[in-house]
Amino acid sequence: MTRTLLAPVRALGRGTRVFTLAVGSWGSLVVDAVRALRWVQIWAPLTLRQMTRIGVDSVPIALFIAAFTGIVLALQASYTFTGAIPLYFVGVLVGKTMMLELGPVLTGLALSGRVGANISAEIGTMRVTEQIDALETLAYPPVAYLVVPRVIAGTIMFPLVTALAIAMGIVAGWITAIQLLELSTPEFVNGLKLFFLPFDVTYALIKATSFGFVVTSIGCHFGFNTKGGAEGVGRSTTGAVVASSMVILVLDAFWAVLLL
Amino acid sequence: MSEKRDALVGVVIIAALVVIAAGTLWLEGSSFSGERTEVAAVFHEVGQIKSGNPVKLRGVRIGRVQEVEVLADGSGVRVHFRIQDGIRLPEDAAVVLSPESFFGDWQAEIHPRTRFPHADFADPREAGELPGYALPDISQLTATADRISENLAELTDRVGIAFSDETARNIASLIGNVEEVTERLSDLVTQQAASFTDVTDDVRRATQGIGDAALEAQVALTRMNQLFAQAATGDALDDLVALAANLRILSEGLQDTNVTVQSMASRVDSAFTALDRVVERAESGEGSLGRLLADPTMAAGMEGTLAELQVLLQDIRENPRRYLRLSIF
């Protein structure tokens, strides 16, 4: 009876302990990565390759998501803006929403599934096949070899991919507005410029940079802590995607509170 | 393979940077070419103007707001603008900030100051600065309209209180009285019109009589002329002199009679006045006559006295010796 009553309390305590350990372990990995920056000769040649895998290869999926997001935004805006609100506000809504929210967040979520899962699975497999242990045996710093290039590549490439995605979303919204809605290009551009602030772009890039850092670092963390065989790799991959997505949303709110 | 990968990464980075830089500059309204001139203006307050808002001259966009800063002494706001070079501003140029639409976007317009003679422009602090004035925001206008509506509501309430049922009845009664007065005035006017018609007829008749008299006088004068023209004029004049003397005597007699009549009328008047006083005293119950008229007991006493007097007279007639004794010796 007592065990049953205490079960939720125990679950809360266990969850807190696991969360704290995970955050601590992730923080420890980040600190190790910062320390590993001194091995430039190890991570620098690998960074470009990771930039290709994380950034360049992610551009098509990011543009695809952004394009359809822009189309939907334009259509939903025209559906909503009836009566008193002029239709050129479609440009306002598409531009502001893509820059401030949907561009960075949707790109981050999409790349957390693609990049985070990829990193976690790759490093997790190396962990369960003891390749990382082999690197350590050879006195080759695994963090400098596996983590630093990926985190640097993700931190650099996420904002660039996000910028392209934002531009694609706005272009898609513009094409939708002039093709499917009774809106001209000058009207859409007027709305786009109406409430634009340069800080909007800065805000989007700050968010995307933070998303790139957490997605890659969390993917590396889950991969480094993979245990067991193929099942463990799968579990780590799933955990990395879920954790990255949750952190992206938490960071989204955090930046909004802090910067807006 | 490595070179291709490097190129791909480079292309993505360059593309993203170009998109970020060019997009930001384009959306911000920056021009990629052309010289720019900086202009500053001072305002008491600037509404919702901010960096990047358009600057217009005669409705055409010629630049944008560069910076908004509060003056060090806090007495106003200085706004810096960047406008196209070579544009000649009006002689008495002033900057007016106003909402560009109903949705919170503002603009700065350069106008001749004389276009806003009643606007409270802030005085420039430094040479080259322009005076500035911010038009009221929609929210301020709405607040003013709200105050007006509140005042109207209060006024309506007061009218409602003042215009009670009793007031309505009084007004209805007043209208009825006015109608009655109007009817009476109408009747009076009708009567006066009839009287005026009569007077007019009288005047017409009098005029006719005067005209007839004038004709007769003319005939008489004509005859007199004929008489004067004849030889018997001297006799006629003598007769007329005698007639005039007689008439004078008669007139003097009538005048004396008139004086006598006036004197008699005066005496009659004073007699009537005295009689009026007596009657007035009698009516008010003063004096014997008044008491006799006003007091029924006195009248009864008088009647009793008269009855006794009649009995006494009757007794005297029947028995004179009882009261009179006549002896010669």
Notes on the protein architecture:
The complex is a heterodimer of chains A (260) and B (329). Chain A has nine helices and no strands. By secondary structure, chain A is mainly alpha-helical. Chain A has one domain (41-259). Chain A is globular and about 65 Å long. Chain A starts with a helix and ends with a helix. Among the domains of chain B are: 30-141, no CATH class; 288-321. Chain B is built from seven helices and seven strands. Chain B has helices at residues 2-28, 138-162, 165-229, 233-283, 287-294, 296-318, 320-323; strands spanning 36-43, 54-57, 60-70, 77-84, 93-99, 106-112, 130-134. The longest helix of chain B has 65 residues, at 165-229. Chain B is elongated, with a radius of gyration of 59 Å. The interface between A and B is medium-sized, with 27 and 23 residues.
Going by helix content, strand content and strand pairing, the class of chain B is alpha/beta
| Counted beta strands of chain B | 7
**Rg value of chain B:** 59 Å
Largest sheet of chain B: 7 strands, mixed, barrel
H/E order of the elements of chain A? HHHHHHHHH
Top keywords for this entry?
heterodimer, A: 260 residues, mainly alpha, B: 329 residues, alpha/beta, 7-stranded mixed barrel, 7 helices, 62% helix, 15% strand, elongated
Which helices and strands, and how do they pair?
The complex is a heterodimer of chains A (260) and B (329).
Chain A lengths: L1 H34 L4 H15 L4 H22 L8 H40 L2 H7 L4 H39 L4 H10 L3 H27 L5 H30 L1
Chain B lengths: L1 H27 L7 E8 L10 E4 L2 E11 L6 E8 L8 E7 L6 E7 L17 E5 L3 H25 L2 H65 L3 H51 L3 H8 L1 H23 L1 H4 L6
Parallel strand pairs in B: 1-7, 2-6, 5-7
Antiparallel strand pairs in B: 1-4, 2-3, 3-4, 5-6
Helix pairs in contact in B: 4-5, 5-6
